[in-house]
Give the backbone structure.
Amino acid sequence: MKSSACTGALGALLLFGSLAVGAAPSASAQVLPVCSETFEYPYPGQLHLQNGAQGWLNEWFIVQGAGDISLFDSSVAPAFPLDDGVGVYAGQVVPYGEAYRKPDVFAHPDIDAGGVFGLENTTIWISFSAQLYTGSTDHYGGVSLILQGVGEVLFIGSPWQSNGWGIDDGGPTGPPPVLIPGTSDSQAARIVTRIDFTVGMERLRMYIDPATDYPTGPADLDEMIQDMIWDEIRLSSGGNNGEGYYFDNLVIAKGDPTGSLGTSYCGPAVPNSTTNSAEIGAFGSASVVQNGLTIGATSLPPLAFGFLITSRAQGFAVNPGGSQGNLCLSGAIGRYVGPGQIQNSGSAGAFSLLLDLTQVPQPNGFVSVLPGDVWNFQCWFRDSVGGSAVSNFTDGVSVTFTN
């Protein structure tokens, strides 16, 4: 039902022919979602075997006891002040509570290092909100990166008995944890961690309560850490002295917010219901041989359906088909509405799609991209303004393809 509505709504837009274009370049964010989790499951309940949210290979799995990590809402006193506002969040309720889940790295060949994360010259972001329970004395809680069959390779959060936010990449025999001075795990915090995978050691930057989702300024913690690969995360907290931590709004993303592939144009887009202008970006490779181009949209309304459109020709049409935004393409416009191509923005307000350059949709079928071709991309998405269903667009991005 929703997919057909999206397709039909855009059909009217394709009646527009070749139009003039305003092509002033603008910066385009290059951070795209891998997976997210807002813990919107039945309350009261348990996290074990819950399988909602996008971008995961499996459900949450708790090794020891199904009730180790439970679900809470704002009726719990004292409430978690950094819950995502939707209503439910997770919390550890027994000593040494642990829950595991695997992000779907196979959906992102541009960062896939053979079924694991850690491909050289890629960037990963791990963001989540957390806080030590009021009255708890177990100062250990956060997100671990796990290599299945090996164990923990990095801990992000409040290392064992540290009372503050930081990292531990050494395990029981390695270097001691590194903390951010002046932080306290008793204070709810949004923890944003960037890891740049390089040849040899990796560079890690941690930000506490940054002003943006993917900050570019000086970090609160900037460290070189051990070379690593990973394929699973673990929520863990608590010890023998009581209960542990609340968690919410977990997001794993990829990319450099200062990077750019292709040229942005037709921006900024008309603001959507979030008051922000949605942006589109190109990520990965413009090589036809590599066939590794990902197109992603950010600053979308949360939980909004949308899809990519593409054309060889740029254009500019105001409010086409009754849309709130601007159509930045003209000529023969193709729509990515095949199986698995219509996307949902999730809680992060973003989505991405890996393109098959041998199957670019056009009104009369599919075509292949050739070296030297220039293709333009945009995202159409649903929105709601004043309770009424509307649609809108991102800006556009133009990509010149190489061998």
About this structure: The chain is about 0% helix and 40% strand.
